[in-house]
Task: structure prediction
Amino acid sequence: MDLKKLRYLEAIYRLKSYTKAAEELFISQPSLSNAIHALEKELGVSLIDRSRQPLRFTFEGERFMWHVYKILECVREAEEDIAEMSERKKHSLMLIWPSITANDYILPKIYTDFHRQYPIYNVVVQDATIQSTMTRLLSEEVDLAMVNLPDNQDLTAFSYIPVMESSVWVMLHHSHPLVQHPSISFEMLGDQTLLTFQRGSLIRRKIEESCEKAKIRPKIISVNQMGVAVQLVQQGYGISFTTMDNTKVNIPEIDLVLRPLEQPIVFQKGFLLKRGRQPSPGVNKLIKFVKDTVAELQNS
Result:
C-alpha cells in the first residue's frame, strides 16, 4: 500500500475538498483523483461518496480512515525516533532573528535555557532582510526565521506560525526636547533626523507611510545595524526607532529614552518556514520553546 496515497486521502478527509487538498499537496486535482481511484481499486471498496455535496466518505471510507490515522501516526513517530537517533552529534539549527527589539528577552533564553534543555543543539543566529530571509529559507540555507510579518509579500511558499505582537517605539537621547512628551506623534518629527531601517523593510515602509500621512518630510538616513543607530542617538545625531514586543519585560537601563507613538505602528511577529519542508525535531523543539517562553512572559 502506497503511503503517499494515504496522505492524499487524509488531506481530502480533513479538508473535505479535492480542490483544497490538491492545493495543500501541491499536485493537480486530476492526479489526486487518479491516486484515490487507484487506492479504491486496490482495496476493492469505494471510500468517497462522490454523488453527495458537500463531500462525504462512505461507511468503508470512515472505517478505513481510523486505520489511516494510526498508520500515519506510527510513521511520524518512527521518523522522529530515527531523526533523534541520527542527531546524537551536536546539530546546528540555523535561525534568523531580527535585532531591533528593545525588550528582547527571548533570544538570550535560547542561548541559555534552550541549550541547557537540549545540549545536542547548537543554535546559530543571524540577521537578514525579509527578501534575503525568504531566499535563504527556500534554498534551505536556514531552518526557520523569526520575522515581522510582511503585508506586501507573496508568502504562499511558506508556513507562518504567529508568536507575538510588536509595536514601534521612538528612541531618543535623554536630553532631547521630545523626552518631555509621554508619547510622540509624527507631526513632532518634521524637523528631525530619523535614523531608521533600510529601504524595503516593513518598519521603514510603515514609518514612511506615517510621515506622508502626517504631511512631513524629515531627513531619513538608513542604518543597517541597530548598534550603530543606538550609538548615533547617544551622540545626539538624530532619533531612531526600535520595536517592543507585547511581553511583560522591563526595558533595559540604557543612556536613552523610549517613547510610544501616538499613532501606533503594530505588526505580527512569528516564525516563517518553507512550506512542505518537514521540520526537524530540533526545529519543532525550538518553536515550542519560544512559544512557551512568550506565553509565560505574557501571563506573568
Observations:
- The mean pLDDT is 88.
- DSSP finds nine helices and eleven strands in the chain.
- The domain at 166-266 is CATH 3.40.190.10 (D-Maltodextrin-Binding Protein; domain 2).
- Residues 129 and 254 are 26 Å apart (CA to CA).
